[in-house]
């Protein structure tokens, strides 16, 4: 090559020389002047120089460009290295002479490219990390400035920075997982709260953030969500605490009510799960639905039921106490406060205007007061009783004295005589008795400053009246005596005239009319003796004390009404009339309930025909058994009436199916309080003799009926399993 | 809130059988409850915890089941097979076969034998300890006059009630022939027979709302005590409806007993005093089976349609376990009409 160039140069030189020679020949020929020739040569040389200069300039520029390129590359390399935090790979050698510029450039370019590639990779790494960071930040809800675009700071792509970013990412990831955990924790808490409160968990979390409900998708874990979750928990917890307190209040009330009313254990057990939580703290209540609205309502209902029960019991108690008070008053002949007070009190309780407890307290106080008063009155009352019995005797004696046949020797005459004797002794003591009583009563009244009332009437006035009456009677008697005397004279005169003596009786009977009656016709207070025993209270008229003489008649009225009572009457008849009243009283409340198949006159003996009738009556005993409860059973065995004799019973229970042992009384005694029901061992219509009146239906009768037609019986299970006896087997059965 | 019904009826067990319940029994050692059903399963529940402990699937409907001990039991299946069920492993092996569906199964602690009654008119005794295989386990086959409907054991006595109202009483120590051959004192088909816990007799119920109380003692005095009474009946508008009495269960402590009928009622009776002690609130459908727990504190009630009116829509089958109050089962002392002065 170089040869070629030198050849070219040589050639060029030769051509230049030949051209010059040619020019000299031309000039010689032309005869150009030397000056012209010199000028031309100078021109030529200048032009040549020009061309050289241009070329040199060009080369120079090219070298500068090369240098620039190298420098640029080196600079870029340096920037990249610095950006990547690495020591620059290429350190420019000082001995520039060794390598030409082009080589240098050639050497540096691959390095640069390598570095650029590395930078790009690094940048991608950065981008990736940053994207992650951004994503997590977004999830967490920490919004960066421009969330859509990730910007990488190109100047700092060092590993350290990358490391930093990684750390940041890690921190964020950790935070994210923490948050996730927190959210899950919250969700768990929320779930358990919802369970306890009986709320819809899904709906609750949906309200907080819809993404939370999604079990697979990512859950929103932003601050906002967590806060809302926390506040939801807070809210639910508050609700829970409120409800818990409510429930505990209810439970406490319930326990109190149970305690108060001795509620049976089985009833309490139903609410065991309520009362066991009575002292539980908020976090201890975890059972499902314990605090749901329904459950609380349910408990509330129970409590209100118990309260109603308590109210009714209270009312009962008030009534009981009230009647106790009245009873005491009655016994001590005090007049209780107006009867209306009780109705008023009950109305007040019902309307809720008054607390039954306070009324109860008032009544208790009243009872205590009355008891105290009764105690102070006791002595006087005893004396009053004595006085009254004496008065009774007095009135009886009066009556007796009026009876002109009293000395007729009849049955029991000696007894009446004796009684009269005694009565006279008592009557003699009466004035002293009255005086003593008066002084006692006055002393009592003076001491207390109140009137001594006997059944609402002042005792002193009663005594006074009695004294007045007595005096009147005395006068009357005196008048009578005078009259008698007069009569005697008259008779004596008449006798003297006519010689006969009219019977004194006739005259006496004529006198009977105007005489004061001791019955209830006249004013009670004015009447004497026994009539005084009547108390002003109308309800007492039913008590045995008030109308002792009426009793037998009344009883017979009652008895004639129904068969049931006739049993009692039977027994009563045996025991004597005097005691009969009591059992009848006991039974009579059943009277309206029982429709006896037949009626019988009271006291007529139960004939055997009657009994057989009784026995023929379908299910008579059963009916009685059902309707009466314990009453009949009480009377029957103890009185041993013909009805319970075993032989008769056997006619009742002659159904061979039941095989009731002879001699077993069907109706065993039972206390009325027990709920236990007797077994129905009595007859039922047998299938063959099914009565037309009441149809007995076997449950699943259709199938059983079929069974009879088929001749082979099958149980429900066999029918269900489709089990059929093989033909041969059936045959053998039929043969057998 | 479903707390209202169960409180009166007892707690309803979860995972009940999906078809009619043929029997249920409490274990003698725990509150485990074994339940056989027409849905071809035998289920083991832990009644106190309301947990289904195990389930065995058979080839056909299971008509009866009983415990061996707390770890195993036996089942009687419509596929003629008697199976032994091991609860811990969930495995079952075949004890043997009858020629017809097996109606009832009992395990005698006294004899250490399994006794099964079948519609093939036989009774078979099995020795469950024998290695698997019928020739090894079968102890004996005892022909019965009719298809066996119900079995009950007390001590060494076995009472077998069959179709045709036959009742055979066996002594397990001598199974060659019945100790007593009786006819049911009730006029209708026998539904259930159960021995008194004191071993003196047995109660027998029929499809016609009646229960007979019988005594083993054949002397005149002993037989004088027997009687029958009506129950599970309804009188409505002049029509008396009489329901089958499906189940009898004796209280292990007091000797009183509960009966369950197709009317859905469970009644508790005091046989000695001839009184009804208690009536539980009505269950949704027929009472198919009853069982008291070993201490008598729990009563399992199977409320399950017993097919008395054929295939028809009915209430879902359910098992209720109720705690028993002493008042409901304790005999009330006799009260004399006039206490001696």
Description:
Chain B: WD repeats lie at residues 95-127, 245-279. Chain B: Keywords: Cell cycle, Cell division, Centromere, Chromosome, Chromosome partition, Kinetochore, Meiosis, Mitosis, Nucleus, Repeat, WD repeat. Chain B: Belongs to the WD repeat BUB3 family. The complex is a heterodimer of chains A (736) and B (341). Chain A has 736 residues and is an all-alpha fold. Chain A is rod-shaped and about 250 Å long. Chain A has helices at residues 2-30, 34-83, 101-140, 159-197, 201-208, 210-213, 223-261, 265-269, 272-275, 293-331, 340-351, 356-402, 413-448, 459-498, 504-511, 551-559, 563-575, 577-587, 608-616, 620-628, 631-639, 646-652, 701-710, 716-721, 727-735, and strands at residues 453-454, 457-458, 677-678, 695-698. The longest helix of chain A has 50 residues, at 34-83. Among the domains of chain A are: 47-145, no CATH class; 162-291, no CATH class; 313-404 and 414-496, no CATH class. Chain A has a two-stranded antiparallel ribbon. The model of chain A is unreliable at 504-656, 658-674, 683-693, 702-709 and 729-736 (pLDDT under 50). In chain A, a hairpin with a 2-residue loop joins β1 (453-454) and β2 (457-458). The N and C termini of chain A lie far apart (141 Å). In chain A, α2 (34-83) runs parallel beside α3 (101-140), α7 (223-261) runs parallel beside α10 and α12 (356-402) packs across α13. Chain B contains four helices and 30 strands. A four-stranded antiparallel sheet of chain B has the order 1-30-29-28. A four-stranded antiparallel sheet of chain B has the order 2-3-4-5, with no helix packed on it. A four-stranded antiparallel sheet of chain B has the order 6-7-8-9. Chain B is globular and about 55 Å long. The N and C termini of chain B lie far apart (56 Å). Classes of the chains: A mainly alpha (736), B mainly beta (341). Chains A and B meet through α8, α10, α21, β3 and β4 of A and β21, β23 and β27 of B. β4 of chain A pairs parallel with β23 of chain B.
């Amino acid at each position: 090559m170089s040869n070629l160039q030198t050849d070219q140069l040589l050639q060029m030189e030769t051509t230049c020389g030949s051209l010059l020679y040619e020019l000299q020949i031309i000039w010689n020929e032309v005869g150009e002047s030397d000056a012209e020739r010199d000028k031309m040569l100078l021109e030529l040389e200048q032009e040549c120089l020009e061309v050289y200069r241009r070329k040199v300039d060009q080369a120079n520029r090219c070298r500068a460009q090369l240098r620039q390129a190298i420098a640029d590359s080196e600079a870029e390399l340096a920037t990249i290295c610095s950006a990547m935090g690495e020591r620059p790979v290429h350190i420019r050698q000082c001995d520039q002479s060794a390598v030409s510029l082009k080589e240098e450039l050639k050497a540096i370019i691959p390095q640069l490219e390598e570095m650029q590639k590395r930078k790009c990779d690094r940048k991608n790494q950065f981008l990736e990390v940053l994207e992650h960071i951004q994503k997590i930040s977004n999830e967490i809800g920490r919004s960066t400035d421009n969330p859509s675009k990730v910007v990488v700071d190109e100047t700092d792509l060092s590993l350290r920075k990358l490391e930093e970013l990684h750390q940041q990412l890690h921190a964020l990831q950790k935070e994210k997982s923490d948050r996730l955990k927190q959210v899950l924790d919250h969700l768990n808490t929320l779930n358990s709260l919802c369970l306890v409160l009986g709320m819809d968990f899904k709906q609750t979390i949906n309200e907080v953030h819809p993404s939370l409900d999604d079990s697979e998708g990512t859950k929103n874990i932003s601050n906002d969500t967590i806060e809302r979750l926390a506040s939801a928990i807070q809210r639910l917890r508050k609700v829970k605490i409120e409800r818990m307190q409510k429930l505990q209040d209810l439970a406490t009330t319930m326990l109190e009510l149970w305690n108060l009313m001795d509620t049976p254990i089985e009833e309490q057990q139903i609410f065991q799960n309520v009362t066991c939580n009575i002292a539980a703290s908020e976090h201890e209540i975890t059972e499902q639905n314990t605090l749901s609205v329904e459950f609380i309502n349910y408990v509330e209902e129970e409590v209100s039921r118990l309260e109603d029960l308590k109210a009714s019991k209270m009312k009962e108690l008030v009534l009981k106490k009230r009647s106790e008070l009245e009873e005491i008053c009655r016994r001590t002949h005090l007049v209780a406060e107006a009867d209306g007070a009780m109705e008023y009190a009950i109305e007040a309780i019902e309307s809720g205007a008054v607390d039954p407890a306070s009324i109860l307290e008032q009544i208790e106080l009243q009872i205590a007061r009355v008891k105290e008063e009764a105690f102070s009155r006791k002595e006087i009352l005893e004396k009053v009783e004595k006085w009254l019995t004496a008065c009774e005797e007095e009135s009886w004696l009066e009556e007796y004295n009026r009876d002109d046949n009293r000395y007729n020797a009849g049955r029991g005459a000696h007894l009446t005589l004796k009684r009269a004797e005694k009565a006279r002794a008592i009557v003699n003591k009466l004035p002293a008795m009255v005086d003593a009583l008066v002084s006692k009563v006055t002393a009592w009244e003076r001491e207390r400053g109140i009137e001594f009332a006997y059944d609402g009437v002042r005792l002193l006035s009663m005594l006074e009246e009695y004294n007045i009456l007595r005096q009147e009677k005395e006068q009357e008697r005196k008048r009578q005596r005078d009259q008698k005397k007069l009569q005697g004279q008259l008779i004596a005169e008449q006798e003297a005239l006519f010689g006969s003596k009219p019977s004194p009786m006739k005259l006496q009977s004529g006198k009977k009319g105007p005489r004061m009656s001791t019955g209830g016709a006249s004013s009670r207070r004015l009447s004497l003796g026994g009539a005084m025993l009547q108390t002003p209270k109308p309800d007492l008229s039913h008590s045995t004390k008030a109308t002792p003489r009426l009793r037998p008649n009344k009883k017979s009225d009652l008895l004639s009404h129904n068969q049931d009572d006739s049993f009692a009457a039977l027994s009563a008849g045996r025991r004597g009339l005097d005691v009969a009243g009591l059992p009848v009283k006991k039974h009579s409340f059943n009277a309206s309930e029982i429709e006896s198949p037949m009626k019988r006159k009271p006291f007529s003996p139960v004939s055997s025909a009657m009994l057989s009738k009784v026995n023929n009556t379908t299910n008579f005993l059963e009916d009685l058994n059902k309707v009466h409860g314990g009453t009949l059973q009480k009377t029957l065995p103890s009185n041993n009436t013909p009805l319970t004799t075993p032989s008769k019973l056997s006619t009742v229970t002659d159904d061979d199916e039941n095989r009731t042992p002879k001699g077993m009384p069907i109706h065993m005694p039972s206390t009325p309080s027990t709920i236990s029901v007797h077994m129905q061992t009595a007859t039922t219509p047998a299938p063959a003799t099914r009565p037309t009146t009441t149809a007995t239906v076997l449950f699943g009768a259709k199938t059983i009926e079929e069974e009879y037609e088929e001749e082979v019986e099958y149980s429900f299970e066999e029918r269900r399993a489709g089990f059929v006896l093989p033909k041969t087997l059936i045959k053998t059965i039929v043969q057998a | 809130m479903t707390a209202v019904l169960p409180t009166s009826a007892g707690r309803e067990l979860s995972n009940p059988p999906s078809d009619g319940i043929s029997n249920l029994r409490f274990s003698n050692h725990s509150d485990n409850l074994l339940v056989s059903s027409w849905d071809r399963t035998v289920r083991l529940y832990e009644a106190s915890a309301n947990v289904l402990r195990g389930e065995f699937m058979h080839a056909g409907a299971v008509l009866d089941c009983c415990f061996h001990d707390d770890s195993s039991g036996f089942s009687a299946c419509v596929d003629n097979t008697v199976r032994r069920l091991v609860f811990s492993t969930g495995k079952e092996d075949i004890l043997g076969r009858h020629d017809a569906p097996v109606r009832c199964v009992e395990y005698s602690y006294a004899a250490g034998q399994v006794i099964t009654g079948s519609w093939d008119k036989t009774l078979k005794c099995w020795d469950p300890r024998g290695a698997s295989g019928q020739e090894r386990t079968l102890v004996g086959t005892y022909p019965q006059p009719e298809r066996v409907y119900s079995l009950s054991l007390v001590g060494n006595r076995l009472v077998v009630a069959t179709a045709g109202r036959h009742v055979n009483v066996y002594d397990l120590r001598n199974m060659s022939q019945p100790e007593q051959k009786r006819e049911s004192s009730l006029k209708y088909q026998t539904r259930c027979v159960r021995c008194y816990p004191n071993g003196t007799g047995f109660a027998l119920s029929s499809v016609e709302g009646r229960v007979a109380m019988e005594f083993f003692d054949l002397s005149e005095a002993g037989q004088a005590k027997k009687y029958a009474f009506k129950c599970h009946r309804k009188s409505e508008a002049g029509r008396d409806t009489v329901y089958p009495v499906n189940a009898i269960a004796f209280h292990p402590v007091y000797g009183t007993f509960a009966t369950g009928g197709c009317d859905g009622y469970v009644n508790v009776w005091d046989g000695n005093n001839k009184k009804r002690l208690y009536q539980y609130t009505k269950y949704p459908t027929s009472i198919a089976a009853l069982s008291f727990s070993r201490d008598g504190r729990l009563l399992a009630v199977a409320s399950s349609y017993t097919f008395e009116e054929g295939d028809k829509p009915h209430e879902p089958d359910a098992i209720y376990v109720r705690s028993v109050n002493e008042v409901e089962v304790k005999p009330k002392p006799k009260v004399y009409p006039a206490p001696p002065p």
